[in-house]
């Protein structure tokens, strides 16, 4: 999968997977022995991406198990994030000495006729005013995916749940985006904090990434 985040000491792995093959994988030891074939396939696709990213980054052989609240369990000294659609999976990994949190998301672009009903739930009033008629499905998918990546990165740091109306995309162009929190998550992440992100389109999918540096001073990548 063609996505080069351009971040030092970060490894991204992603691609298409064969659901029929991965559905046969032994996932009992990972806590999915009762899951559906579809769920097992998606889970294994994401974990295999994560395992490959860990190996390429540091030569570590480890497939993250599922921990509390279904979050992946990373080996000591590492952090990461995993995402999947029905057909694609992705993972990003870094050392905690470089990044304290990562968030990655991969989404198929919404069809134009499915977009209108979702806009009020996913986009703030300000975001809605900046929509254009062209590629509406891609615009809404990008905002949705960016907020998903933001949540994946910030929830482990703050322990505070937040929702689509609690952050907004301020700008997005040429693979870089800027988001702003509209609600305070804790004293380190107050309302008004801005976080940058990266994104790219791969076929009919969008990939977004938020990386919070270890020396974070209120921004991401």
Automatic annotation (TrEMBL):
This protein's UniProt keywords: Enterobactin biosynthesis, Transferase
Ranges for domain 4'-phosphopantetheinyl transferase N-terminal: 33-94
InterPro entries hit by this protein: 4-PPantetheinyl_Trfase_dom, 4-PPantetheinyl_Trfase_dom_sf, 4PPT_N, Enbac_synth_compD-like
SUPFAM superfamilies: 4'-phosphopantetheinyl transferase
Superkingdom field: Bacteria
GO molecular function, one term: transferase activity
Reactions it catalyzes: apo-[aryl-carrier protein] + CoA = holo-[aryl-carrier protein] + adenosine 3',5'-bisphosphate + H(+); apo-[peptidyl-carrier protein] + CoA = holo-[peptidyl-carrier protein] + adenosine 3',5'-bisphosphate + H(+)
Family: Belongs to the P-Pant transferase superfamily. EntD family.
Protein name according to UniProt: Enterobactin synthase component D
Lineage: Bacteria, Pseudomonadati, Pseudomonadota, Gammaproteobacteria, Aeromonadales
């Amino acid at each position: 999968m063609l996505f080069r985040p351009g971040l030092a000491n970060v490894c991204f792995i992603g691609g298409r997977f064969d659901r029929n093959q991965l559905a046969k994988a032994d996932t009992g030891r990972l806590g999915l022995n009762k899951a559906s074939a579809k769920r097992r396939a998606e889970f294994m696709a994401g974990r295999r991406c994560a395992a490959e990213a860990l190996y390429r980054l540091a030569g570590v052989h480890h497939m993250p198990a599922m921990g509390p609240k279904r979050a992946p369990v990373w080996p000591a000294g590492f952090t990461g994030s995993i995402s999947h659609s029905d057909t694609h999976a992705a993972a990003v990994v870094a050392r905690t000495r470089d990044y304290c949190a990562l968030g990655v998301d991969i989404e198929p672009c919404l069809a134009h006729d499915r977009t209108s009903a979702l806009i009020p739930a996913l986009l703030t009033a300000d975001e809605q005013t900046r929509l254009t008629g062209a590629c509406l499905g891609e615009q809404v998918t990008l905002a949705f995916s960016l907020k998903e990546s933001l949540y994946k990165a910030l929830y482990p740091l703050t322990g505070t749940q937040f929702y689509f109306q609690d952050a907004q995309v301020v700008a997005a162009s040429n693979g870089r985006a800027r988001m702003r929190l509209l609600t305070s998550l804790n004293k380190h992440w107050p309302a008004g904090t801005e976080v940058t992100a990266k994104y790219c389109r791969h076929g009919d999918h969008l990939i977004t990434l938020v990386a919070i540096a270890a020396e974070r001073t209120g921004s991401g990548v």
